[in-house]
DUF2244 domain-containing protein
Amino acid sequence: MPYEWDTPITRAPAPDAPGHDAGGAPIAVLHLWPYRSLPKRGFAFAIGFAYLMLMIPVAGFVGTAAMWWLFFPGLIAIVGLWWFLGKSYRDGEILEELTIWPDHVRLTRTGPKRSHAEWEANPHWVTVQRHPTGGPVKDYITLKGGAREVEIGAFLHEDERPALFDELTRAFTLAKSRRMP
């Protein structure tokens, strides 16, 4: 799954747990990122394979002027493949981080081209909402707190978003409750 709880919340925080303002550690940390169907190793393999496939027809024309008519357009195609795959990787450099304290929640989104967005709220006023239809994607998940509503995990696969919704609902339910000593 392209999301992971670094610090999963398994039970309600203690009543005396220090909050965000007191410098306390978060009670839950969630990282989300887009799925990569082609890992870096596969990227290198694809470029190498394209180069080898280019060399097959070129090898038959070594020593002739026709070799250059085959070699340069093929080389341009390989450079184009490299550039477009690299652009796809750069555009998919999204990381969302949800950090929950007993008295504070922060969602940060770092995107391509160093774009950065942040949202903060009190977890007691945050509601997790799932929009089965009507959103930009199926099972669109939003967090609403204060005057803003923000999306989370819109880049996840449609099968992963309901599970994320359940986990977020459970995490905020536990964060809102206080454990008795």
